[in-house]
Amino acid sequence: MTTVVSTRPAPAASTAAPPADRPPRSERRAGALLTAPFLVIYLLFLIGPLLVGVVLSFFNTTTVKSGLGDFVGLANYREVVTDSLFWDAMWHSVVFTLLTTPPLVILALVVAILAARMRRGRVFYRIAFFAPYVVPSSVVALIFLWMYTPQIGLLPKLFGAVGLPVPDFIGSTSGGWTAVTLMTLWWTFGFNFVLYTAAIQDVPPDVYEAAAIDGASPWQQIRHITVPLLGRTTSLVLILQILASLKVFDQIYLLLAGGPNQSTRPVIEYIYDTGFTSYRGGYGAAATMVYFVVIVAVSAAWYGLRRRRAGSTAV
Predict the structure, then answer these.
(1) Domain residue spans of the chain
(2) CATH 3.50.50.60 fits 90-265, yes or no
(3) DSSP 3-state assignment of 167?
(4) Helix 84-116 vs helix 231-246: angle between axes, to the nearest 10 degrees?
(5) pTM over 0.90
(6) For the segment 64-116, what is each residue's pLDDT rounded down to a tens digit?
(7) pLDDT exceeds 90 at position 245
(8) Farthest CA pair distance, the chain
(9) H helices then E strands: how many in the chain?
(10) 169 with 178: CB under 8 angstroms?
(11) End-to-end CA distance of the chain
(12) Peptide bond preceding 260 in cis form (omega within 30 of 0)
């Protein structure tokens, strides 16, 4: 008796198994539904206004008349890049960034480390340091305006009580920069503080215990353990603070109105003045697009440096 063995290949499976790293179709559908509300809001309130601004920048649009106005092509952009007032405002934004970014990063790091090492009242200090950040900018500006007012303000009285010359916080350029910097430090310090506090909580306690057993002092633990492990957080805080400072408007506009003689007016206030005070909507849109390119360039440069540093570290 002979047995016949078939040599034909087995039929292939009707359906191929999905890749191991790809989620099932039901999970992808659920993810799309969950992100749909955010995408709609993002398109309506971010991408939509950006596209409208691009279109307006090519027209001689005015905010006191309906319609786009006459098409002017790149004339608005040429006027922006040749306007000395625009570059003065750009420099004022850079000055504000240089004055506020280093202390807001360093001070938040130091205070977060000290608060994390508090044995009692840790929650109280965290709430106290973060609380000013949730106060509206108009309220903060009003408080500091009362403090800076000559003759009746708190700070002029303190300077006069100790026999020091009273700075002109409102009427001089140097005093104005000092006033708005101090106000910004008190108001926005809490955001960076929270970021550092969250990062410090992720550091394993075993690392500090091992360092203490080896005889490391608290200062040595902070210097050789805490600060190096917070490197990624410091990089994130730095770029977020730079971008936030470059986009300053509220505190300078409410406290100084860009004065005296527009010596502290930032770019956002310049765009506001040209678009809503001078009613030049098309020109204001062109200035906005130019400044938008500057912000994107700063973000792209930071991203490139991060990629390059990550690549060198991996090697």
Answers:
(1) 90-265
(2) no
(3) coil
(4) 150
(5) no
(6) 888 888 999 999 999 999 999 999 999 999 999 999 999 999 999 999 999 98
(7) yes
(8) 122
(9) 15, 0
(10) yes
(11) 68
(12) yes
